[in-house]
Every structure is written in structure tokens, then in C-alpha cells.
Amino acid sequence: MQKGMTLIQGDYRAVIDIGTTKVCVILVARRPDRRLEITGLGIAQCDGLRKGVIADTAAVTDAIRRAAEEASQQAGVVLAAAYVGIAGTHIDSDDRWSAVPRGPGVRAVTQDDLVEAVKHVSKFDPAPGQHVLHVIPRTYTLDGLHGVHNPEGMHTQELHVQSQVISGPTEQVEALEAAVNAAGLRCAGVIVEPMATADAVFEPAEKQGVVALVDIGGGKTDIAVFHDGIMVATAMLPVGGYQFTNDLSIAFSLPYADAEKLKVEQGTVIPDFFHAAAEVVIRPTGMQGPLTITHRDIGQILKDRAEELIELVRMKLDIPALAETPVETIVVTGGGAQLRDFITLTKHSLQKKIRLGAPKGLDGLPETHRDPSIAAAAGMAMWAMRNLPAEGHAARPYEPSAGVIGTLRGLLPHAKSDVAKKTPAKV
Ligand SMILES: Nc1ncnc2c1ncn2[C@@H]1O[C@H](COP(=O)(O)OP(=O)(O)OP(=O)(O)O)[C@@H](O)[C@H]1O
Ligand SMILES: [Mg+2]
Description:
Blueprint: H1 5-8, E1 11-18, E2 22-30, E3 36-45, E4 49-50, E5 53-54, H2 57-75, E6 77-79, E7 81-86, E8 92-99, E9 107-108, H3 111-122, E10 130-142, E11 145-148, E12 155-156, E13 159-169, H4 170-182, E14 186-192, H5 193-201, E15 210-216, E16 221-227, E17 230-237, H6 241-251, H7 256-266, E18 279-282, E19 291-294, H8 295-317, E20 329-333, H9 342-350, E21 353-356, H10 375-387, E22 394-397, H11 404-411, H12 419-422
Parallel strand pairs: 1-7, 7-14, 15-20, 20-21
Antiparallel strand pairs: 1-2, 2-3, 4-5, 6-22, 8-13, 9-12, 10-11, 10-13, 15-16, 16-17, 18-19
Helix pairs in contact: 2-4, 5-10, 6-7, 6-8, 8-9
Bound molecules: adenosine-5'-triphosphate and magnesium ion.
């Protein structure tokens, strides 16, 4: 397909997932057959986060710029704005009932009433220091008739809406917004990552019942619990793939990069499963010559860390709110979930339905990236496409000579993002 003009006319969204190891930018478009297609994917290494929070804005900004450039080149368009993801601790989810203000008398519920309902709920103050990110209407009550999911066209005098209101720390939202702006992009809004990731990895049947999403990233593990499709709890553990690699690095006196390679290529968390006696030659720092170790040696170290992580997940899922409805299924995703035999060990330890979740529902994802580390970005792309406005994400044909950011500066009259306006915080 010829890149450029044809796509600009289309229905586009751009999303940025800022992780502890990488920034991932996805440009997604809706094709005429209504399927969603990734037209640009950019990934840039980044170590500007600590425990999921921005610690080095310059490093994050630089990675956003590089990933955006790559995605723009592929799609053949200049990226002007994007949604950014938020995960980690202090994502709150509240249930709110509210009466939707509408004129007197009995009349049919209109699309405008439903829009007004969301606006109205958005006006509630979140907890101090929190910023409302999503208002998701769940059910409506029409003159005492409960549990209506789609009231449009139905006649009623009073309309009540039950909504899920999700909020995140204002400080973290502002830091994300600033990093995106500094990379020359307008921040169109913030998406709560686990909610979007669930969209990309859950099977339709899993959306009924109680399901946990466990995203094992670089420096942290995000947990979210869903009950009949509604996110009811979130948690974060400060353990991710980094800690597994670091353990190997310390145990065998290896540089981090060598330990990472050893983990990915020869690692397992069930030492007796994976050619236990097979030998691997390594070169420890400070030793005269090479050292021969076995898969079992590597597996023993990774197993200890995996068992600790699984136990921490178990503790997080063992919360009073879920006493009546315990988690039935766990979908494990994120790059760290790919560690050999991790899913098997988790099944043995937790005795639940457990599977690896890779992103689905998007065309155009290169074979090399069809893995769980892209699940969050892919989910955000789907979420943005289905639930959020385009905000002029793709501006005009990409001109390689100008560079994406150089071109953008000319395009952007206002450097400050409009997150505050788009997300109904403190109104
Ligand atoms: N095949 C593999 N086997 C084991 N670990 C892997 C494999 N592939 C990637 N990883 C690990 O996945 C981790 C990165 O995962 P991911 O890309 O999901 O993190 P992130 O999104 O950058 O971070 P976070 O979500 O914590 O902010 C790294 O620690 C890496 O070692
Ligand atoms: Mg991640």
C-alpha cells in the first residue's frame, strides 16, 4: 500500500507504552473492513523508570522520540499526538451511582443523555492527589427499572447511571504528560494499561467470571483483577525480569547483558525439565578462564526467584474483596512471562487455570513482535481505537529529511498537552 495520504484520511490512533525496559509506540488504523491494523510500530530501549514511575525524564523523552520516529516512518505519517499509558500503584477504581440531569417529563433516552451521564459523573471530585482517568458507564436504571445496558430509545422520566470511575495519581499523570510533550507530541489523554491490556489478551469467555491479569515487565509486575469484565482491583509488585537477570549476574559474576542472554537462551524455572545436565560455558568477571555450569545451576537460581514472585502474586490475589469470588483464571503476560517453564511452575503452585497471554485482535503486528511484551501497547491501541477520539494523531505525510520531531514543532502551536481538559479531573 502506498504510504502517506491514504492513511491520513483514515481513522487513526497513536499510543505510547512507557515501560521499565522499553518505550513502545503503536500507530493503529481502522481499515475499510473495520479491522484494526498496526501501520507503525516503534520500540526504543529505555531505563528512565524506577518501579514504574518516571525517574529520568530526559531518558524517557529521548526514548519516546526514537520510538515515535520509527513508528512514523513505517506508517508514512507524522505523529502529532498520542495517548500514553499509566500502570503501577494507586490506580483506584470506584463504583458511582448518579442521577443524570435531563428535562422534565417522560421522554426517550437519547445519545446526548448518555454523553451527559458520563460528563456528570466526571464532575465528582476524586480522592486528593488523584486524577480521574476513565468514566465507564456500566448499567442504567430507568424509573426504577434496574440493570439496563443500552437505554437509548427507551422512555423514562428519571435516568440513573452506575459507572466505574478509574483514577490515578496526579503527580504521575503530570510526569507522563510532561515527558510526552518534551518529545514534541501532544498528549491526548492517559489510558490505564491493565484495563487495555486485558482487552488484547483475554478470551471472550474469560471476560465472564473472575480473572486476573499478571503483567511481568522489566522492573515490576502489574496485577489487575476483573469481575465480569470490570476491573475491581489493581496491585503492583516491585519484581520483574530485571531481578531474575540480576540474580544470575550476581551468582555467576557476569555482566548484566551476559546474564540477560543466559536467562533468555538457557534459562528455566524448573531445573529438571530443560536438559538439566546440559553444559554452558560462561566467562565470569575477575576469573582467569571460562567456567562450565549446567542448565540445572541456572534453573535453580531462577526457580527461587520465580517461586518468590508467584508467592507474592498469590498474596496479592488473596484479598478480602475477593473472598466471595476468588480468582478462577490467571492470564500471565509481559516480557518476563516468557521465561521458560514459568507458566508450568505457576500452575503447579497456584492450582488455577493459568495461561500465557499474547496480544490478539490487531492485524499488521510483525511476527517478531507477536509476543507478550507488546500486550500492553497493543491493548492500548485497541482501547484507544474503540473508546477514544482521534485528536488528529496523524498529521500529514512523513518527510524523512525533516525528521519527525523537527516537522512536529512546526505543526504544534501549543506545547502543553490538554490532558487536564480531556480528563475530567477536579471538575
Ligand atoms: N524469552 C524471554 N525469556 C525470559 N525473559 C524474557 C524473555 N523475553 C523478554 N524477557 C524479559 O522481559 C522483561 C521485559 O518485559 P517487558 O518488555 O514486558 O517490560 P516493560 O514493559 O519494559 O516493563 P514494565 O512493564 O515493568 O514497565 C525483561 O526483563 C526481559 O529480560
Ligand atoms: Mg510493560
